[in-house]
Design a protein that fits this description.
With 236 residues, the chain is an alpha/beta fold. The protein is 37% helix and 19% strand. β1, α1 and β2 form a beta-alpha-beta unit. The protein starts with 7 loop residues before the first strand and ends with a strand. The relative contact order is 0.17.
C-alpha cells in the first residue's frame, strides 16, 4: 500500500490544466484533475490548492498590450475564482468536502481567506482551494502559492506542470533540453529557470520550503509526489 510522506501539501495548478483547445474550462480536464487529487487525498494528506487563471485571462499579457497593470491583475484574480469554483464542483461530485477561500472578499460565493480557518478546514479533512492570488496586483499566483504554503505550514509545494520536471530550456521546442533531477533555489535563480517567479523562489528559499515540479498530465503523479516517489525535479 502506498504511504504518504507529507502531512500537508500545497498543490499549485495552472489554469491551463483545466482548459482544452476548444474551451477555457473543459469538463473532462477538470474531472481528470479532480480524480488525481482525490486519489492523493485518499492517502490521508491534507491538501491546499492554489490555481491560476491563465486559461481565462492573463493580467501580464494584457498589461503588455496597454491595459493598466493593476486593473488587468485584478481581472486575472477573478479568473482564478472561476477556476476554483469549477474545481470545487468536481470535488464535491466525488463527495470530497471542500472550501474555497478568496483573498478578495465576495461573501456570496466563497469564504474570505483567514489563515486559522484554513488550517482548521485542513485539519477537519477538507480540501481548501485558495483563489484570487494574494489579493494584490503585481504578484503572481506562484507567489500566492508560496505565501499560502508557508501560512498553512505545508511541508512542500507541489508544482504541477505540463512537462516531467525542470529543464535547462523548453523541452517542447528543444529536443536537446536536459532535465534536472534536483536543484538548489540559487541554481534556479542564477540560471533563470522558469519554474516559478523569482519572488516565489526567494520566499521558499528564505523559509526552507521544498518544491517538487512534476507532470500533471501523467495519471497518479500527484499521489506519487505525496508518497515521496522520485518523480519530476526537486528544488530545495
Amino acid at each position: 500500500m502506498v504511504k504518504k510522506k507529507y502531512r500537508r501539501v500545497l498543490l499549485k495548478l495552472s489554469g491551463e490544466a483545466l482548459a482544452s483547445k476548444e474551451t477555457s474550462i473543459d469538463s473532462s480536464n477538470v474531472e481528470r484533475v479532480a480524480a488525481d487529487i482525490a486519489e492523493a487525498f485518499a492517502l490521508g494528506t491534507q491538501i491546499g490548492v492554489v490555481i491560476g487563471g491563465g486559461n481565462i485571462f492573463r493580467g501580464v499579457a494584457s498589461s503588455a498590450k496597454g491595459m493598466d497593470r493593476a486593473s488587468s491583475d485584478y481581472m486575472g484574480m477573478l479568473a482564478t475564482v472561476i477556476n476554483g469554483l469549477a474545481l470545487q464542483d468536481a470535488f464535491e461530485k466525488r463527495n470530497l468536502s471542500t472550501r474555497v477561500q478568496t483573498a478578495i472578499e465576495m461573501a456570496e460565493i466563497a469564504e474570505p481567506y483567514i489563515r486559522r480557518r484554513a488550517i482548521r478546514h485542513l485539519e477537519n479533512g477538507r480540501i481548501v482551494i485558495f483563489v484570487a492570488g494574494t489579493g494584490n496586483p503585481y504578484f503572481t499566483t506562484d507567489t500566492a502559492a508560496s505565501l499560502r504554503a508557508m501560512e498553512i505550514n505545508a511541508d512542500v509545494i507541489l508544482k504541477a506542470t505540463k512537462v516531467d520536471g525542470i529543464y535547462d530550456k523548453d523541452p517542447v521546442t528543444h529536443k536537446d533540453a536536459t532535465k534536472f533531477d534536483q536543484l538548489s533555489y540559487i541554481d534556479v535563480l542564477n540560471k533563470g529557470l522558469k519554474v516559478m517567479d523569482s519572488t516565489a523562489i526567494s520566499l521558499c528559499m528564505d523559509n526552507n520550503l521544498p518544491i517538487i515540479c512534476f507532470n500533471l498530465n501523467t495519471p497518479g503523479n500527484v499521489a506519487k509526489a505525496i508518497a515521496g516517489e522520485p518523480i519530476g525535479t526537486v528544488v530545495e
